[in-house]
Amino acid sequence: MARDGPTEQGAWLAIEDAVVLAGALDRSAVPEALIAYDAQRRPRTQPMAKLSGQLGHVLQTGNPVAATLRNALTRLLPTGVFLRLAGSAFAWTPPDRPTPPGPPTSGGRPTG
Fold first, then answer.
1. pLDDT in tens, 54-79
2. Cα(22)–Cα(28) distance, rounded to whole angstroms?
3. pLDDT of res. 104
4. Beta-bridge partners for 106
5. Confidence band of 98 (pLDDT split at 50, 70, 90)
6. Which residues pair with 109 in a beta bridge?
7. What DSSP letter does each residue of the chain carry, written as one string?
8. CA-based angle 61:64:66, to the nearest 5?
9. Is 20 exposed, middle or buried (0-12, 13-18, 19+ CB in 10 A)?
10. pLDDT-derived band of residue 101, with 50, 70 and 90 as boundaries?
11. Dihedrals phi, psi of 48, to nearest 5 degrees
């Protein structure tokens, strides 16, 4: 199983953002939709950003010996352990979309 790097993680979060924003815009005008979007996304993205910064600080080393050891340990980490450690990054469910209105009607019968 391939493991997502920073670029892939950012791309997935952008897709999630787009889905959540589209849903918020389906339900509200722009100002209210932006507030709802922020309220829904912030609890997921802020902890991920904080952890990413902390890991980046620890894992980005210029020491070639430390980098080689880090890379070897990462390759040896079983996928199941990696998935448990990454937990919340993979646990996202899209919000429910509102039911679109049915076809226009005239006198109780569909038009068209």
1. 878 777 888 888 888 888 888 888 88
2. 10
3. 58
4. 109
5. low
6. 106
7. -----HHHHHHHHHHHHHHHHHHHHHHS-HHHHHHHHHHHHHHHHHHHHHHHHHHHHHH----HHHHHHHHHHHHHS-HHHHHHHHGGGG---PPPPPPPP---EETTEE--
8. 60
9. buried
10. low
11. -65, -40
Cβ within 8 Å of residue 61, ≥6 positions away: 67, 70
Q: How far apart are CA 50 and CA 108, in angstroms?
A: 55
The per-residue pLDDT for 10 is 80
Single-letter amino acid, residue 99 = T
The sign of the dihedral angle between the CA atoms of 42, 46, 49, 55 is: negative
Look-up: residue for tokens 């600080």?
57
Name residue 110's beta-bridge partners: 105
Task: Note the residue count of the chain.
Answer: 112
- Tens of pLDDT, residues 17-58: 999 999 999 999 999 999 999 999 999 889 888 888 887 877
